[in-house]
Amino acid sequence: MDKPSTTISDLKKKRRMNALISPTLHEIKFNEFVLFILEKKMGTTRRAFLMELARRKGFRVESELSDSVTHIVAENNSCSDVLEWLAGQNVGDSSRFELLDISWLTECMKVGKPVEAIGKHQLVIRGSLTSNPSPKPAKTPPLATKEVSQYACKRRTTLNNCNQKFTDAFEILAKNFEFRENEGICLAFMRAISVLKCLPFTIVRMRDIEGVPWLGEQVKSIIEEIIEDGESSRVKAVLNDERYKSFLLFTSIFGVGLKTSEKWYRQGFRTLDEVKADKSLKLTKMQKAGFLYHEDLVSCVAKEEADAVYLIVKEAVRAFLPEALVTLTGGFRRGKKIGHDVDFLISDPESGEDEQLLPNVIKLWEKQELLLYYDLVESTFEKTKLPSRKVDAMDHFQKCFLILKLHHQKVDSNRSKPPPESKTHEAKNWKAIRVDLVMCPIQQYAYALLGWTGSRQFERDLRRYATHEKKMMLDNHALYDKTKKIFLKAESEEDIFTHLGLDYIEPWERNA
User: Fold this and answer.
1) Which of 11, 17, 268, 371 has the most CB atoms less than 10 A away?
2) Is the pTM of this model over 0.85?
3) Can 341 be counted among the known catalytic residues?
4) Which residue did the predictor score with more confidence, 121 or 172?
């Protein structure tokens, strides 16, 4: 029997398929976005057209769904439609994808670059600003949820977390997306964690969270699953994910970030022993110290240890600047009993700033054989420079990242009860502790103290509030009023809150 002749329709279909399989090469301008356009309810022709258009604009578009995909774009599909389709693709944890409506891609094509994905274009995560315009009111909403602000800087969040089983789950998911460098979804989970921590009651039913901001559709589905089953299947999938476990291990090394973790993972490493065994790897000085003192550095720093380090730091600083202010910041200032490192802010009321202080302290500790590692970063601070627009921008003060040797006897003298003996305790009489020292001018002390106290989400929202609600710019150096075009002076944290029109929130209430 003769083969049927090739029709024009067949040729068109073949050309469309070739466009999908062998796309024309275009320059990729936006590497952080890897798109997959869903054919469901769209059709092959329109999908091929959109893929080619997006590639011309500089987007990376995959023909097949793969691990590299970060954003899935769909047309005329609801969130449940896309999730149902993903469930049949054997992709494992589908929450790693950001699900977007075609409107996002259309807007990107108009401006020729990626636009904000969070908000109206998302199919999965919908914050309070994009919630259902006609939500059904809860029959008996808890009073505490009626006036929960979208800003962490307007909420009082203590260490008394009534919803830890939920926040623990979201911290794992947020960390997973941080490892995948998907900032949008990571931030959405971090905001959910922050708002759940401020609730003064334990969530036992879904109606308990009606009216609470930043709890979008995906977040609520996970909360519901934990309420019903006691755990989240998505969290279990992440915990069993080889990539997540490898990144968690690699980033536990002092000096190892996401890029190095990605490199090691691609090279096939899965354990620290495998990394150490490869002699061809060129580790930085910081990473070598991280491996050398890894066991100590991954163990928690107790408040008694932080207090002992404080005495060492204060004694060293005041040997050179007797009137210097030495302040313990970070989680310990917020009332935490354990942490991963110890942060200090140093300022001299007399001289304003002494650039030789930290080098002198380093030399002293070297002489005392207390210094195991240090990295001194010189100041690039300029008084007239406007605050950074980036919410997570690092400040420009002189700072030193160290690993100090803390002798057990220094800690034991601060304890009410001696610690139990252990093999480690018997083997050596000291512990390696991560310490950060920040030297700032006295005029910037209040802003630096506020910034270095945290928490990270509290600081994020404080800067966001200043920008969006007050037309001001805030960072660790200054507060700038864009309307009046002046820098606002502050001698205390209270002054900064007053400038922003906010009620003062104590450090122990900033655990957002």
Assistant:
1) 371
2) no
3) yes
4) 172
